[in-house]
Amino acid sequence: MNDRVTDDPARGHSSATLLEASRLGIALTPDLRPLWAGARLCGPAFTVQGAGGDNLALHHAVLQAPPRSVLVADLGGARFGHWGEVLTVAALHRGIAGLLIDGGVRDAAEIEALGFPVFSRNNAILGTRKDFRGVFGHPVTVGGITVDTGDLVVGDADGVVALPSGGAERILDAADARVAHETELMARLREGRSTLELYDFEAGGR
Ligand SMILES: O=C([O-])CC(=O)C(=O)O
Ligand SMILES: [Mg+2]
């Protein structure tokens, strides 16, 4: 294992592996996308209830979230630039691991250059009001899934999953087993076996 994986609260597993291993409905809508190619989001959630078109809650959240946490913010899907380069620099300085936002962000190129993982519903230029101070640490709904503070959020090129904090260890152990099994299967495929026989899809005699 390399250092990145050792350091990784999700043991380096992909969103797809974690979803399959969980056997739960923990996948957010595919409409929440990485802001830049190669972004990987991973860490315990710190939840933020904001108001669409208003980003004061995010300015406060950066100060309240613990280091290594992922800000998980419900901005109602609104098409505004709720987050940009300035907030990214502030978040990086405080050791925040990334942002998952049901709403819009801006400054995509600058955020990519800073290497800060952001997953959002849209990119939008329009600036925001600064009126609503936000509610923190309570369950929020993002991408159709309820996320609570402490849930393990993992996002990559395929999408985002949120593992309930109480079940995360079980899911990670199941993901380890799934990866080991698939590594074995792929070795058989390289020897010339087929997916149909290895998975026994047609055992019913169709
Ligand atoms: O308007 C804001 O507070 C968001 C923003 O542009 C930035 O973070 O650069
Ligand atoms: Mg800005």
Low-confidence stretches: none
Per CATH, which architecture?
A: 3-Layer(bba) Sandwich
Largest sheet: 8 strands, mixed
Mean pLDDT: 96
Distance between the termini: 42 Å
- Write down how many β-strands occur, each being a DSSP E stretch of 2 or more residues: 10
Report the CATH superfamily. Answer: Ribonuclease E inhibitor RraA/RraA-like
Bin the strand percentage.
15-25%
Radius of gyration from the alpha-carbon trace, in angstroms: 19 Å
What fold name goes in the CATH topology slot? Glucose Oxidase, domain 1
Q: Write the H/E string, N to C.
A: HHEEHEHEHEEEEEEHH
| Count of domains | 1
Structural class: alpha/beta
CATH class: Alpha Beta
Notes on the structure:
With 206 residues, the protein is an alpha/beta fold. The chain has a single domain (3-170), classed as Ribonuclease E inhibitor RraA/RraA-like (Glucose Oxidase, domain 1, 3-Layer(bba) Sandwich), CATH 3.50.30. Helices cover 32% and strands 23% of the residues. The protein has helices spanning 3-7, 15-22, 56-64, 85-93, 108-114, 168-190, 195-199; strands at residues 33-34, 41-49, 70-74, 98-105, 118-123, 135-136, 140-142, 145-147, 152-156, 159-163. Strands 1, 2, 3, 4, 5, 6, 9 and 10 form an eight-stranded mixed β-sheet that branches. A two-stranded antiparallel ribbon has the order 7-8. A hairpin with a 2-residue loop joins strand 9 (152-156) and strand 10. Helix 2 (15-22) crosses helix 6 (168-190). The N and C termini lie far apart (42 Å). The relative contact order is 0.22. Bound molecules: oxaloacetate ion and magnesium ion (MG).
